[in-house]
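Bench notes, bay 3.
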Amino acid sequence: MPFHNIFKITKKKSKKPKPKIIADIHEKNSLILAELHENKNIKLEIKSLKIGDYLIGKTIIERKTVNDFISSMINKRLIQQLKQMKKYRQQLLIIEGIDEQELYRTDTKLNPNAIRGFILSIITNYQIPIIFTQDYQDTSQYLITLAKQQLKPLTETTLHHKIPKTIKEQKQYILEAFPNIGPITAKKLLKKFKNIHNTINATTEELQEILRNRAEGFKNLLEG
């Protein structure tokens, strides 16, 4: 007669924790929440956030559509929001809809350079990185990716994970804020053009050596 060990303990496989995204209740009617709801690989929680629109780990996120960004720039509401966000360890500003809405608006009296200056002020004075997204789906993917990264060991591949201290780091930090400019590309641009001023004033042909097919888009963003 075979002997069965009735005292044998079978260990249950532990479920991997799902990355968590906390969304402010005021975002409940946004298309972003609909996208997040459909994703079964994350845990979505909706609650009232006194600061920001989304909280992922220790990162507070403020999302602005292009129209929201311009209006909150004019009425200075965004300045107050940025100051409040500093209460968190990490902050992120998302400007959404650059494919659908022109950032440098022609129907306002705002000078495009005023908008550029404000963006640079957010990055340099408030030390808050900015992500420009195409639409709500692109924003959703950024939030999901960030949430997944919270479960992984932190690896600093870009200066936007820390506060730049040296002048060299600050120059790279500013360039990384532009769409499609990563840390490697930013370093290449600074190596070739030496500083921010020379990079911004470089011709499309000169930029193509490093940016290739992205050069024209980069130049158009600068010139509005």
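Next record in the batch:
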Amino acid sequence: MAEKAHGTRLLLIRHGESQVTVDQVVGGHRGCTGLSPLGRKQAELLRERLARTGEVPDPAALYASVLPRAIETAEIIAPALGDLPVQQDCGVCEVHPGEADGLTWQEFSDRFGVPAPGEHYRPWAPGAESWSSFVARVGVTILDLVERHAGQTVVVACHGGVIDAAFVVLGGLPVRRPFDTFVTNTAITEWAEAPSGRWALLRYNDAAHLAGLS
């Protein structure tokens, strides 16, 4: 059996501020309308940072979820990553909200409630994912990406929930809580594979490029 390649880097970048966040709407496949003006500015600042610092040399691939806010973010930063094509993968989408898609946050809460701690097996709404099924879906996708690009650097424009789920998939944390993220828009979270085959968290929520942005 061939020796497994090492040195894989995985950079997970949360999308810029979304318009659905501004409008307080659940933004799934139907509801998402892309970035807000502030979100585009955040992504532009990230692009300028990456071009200036060269901190992501020779990336092999640039992925995004199929949601417009992630696609736009990836397209904006692509020039700083060698103009890589944006490969879309629904596996790194945010939690699929089912019938809650497109509702306002208040309508969602009124109709379906909010999963309480420990209810990570309960779907958020009819046709939606639960937190545990979401983590499983993201886990399969992340492990496939890093195997496909073993020894390379991969950049993924995704979502706060995906970044949270990576702590379960790569960091070995238990699935024990509902969705809740504190990841800043366009922040970088970076994982690297060690020679042992385990994963090391190199940075989390790195949003230095947003300093001074109101």
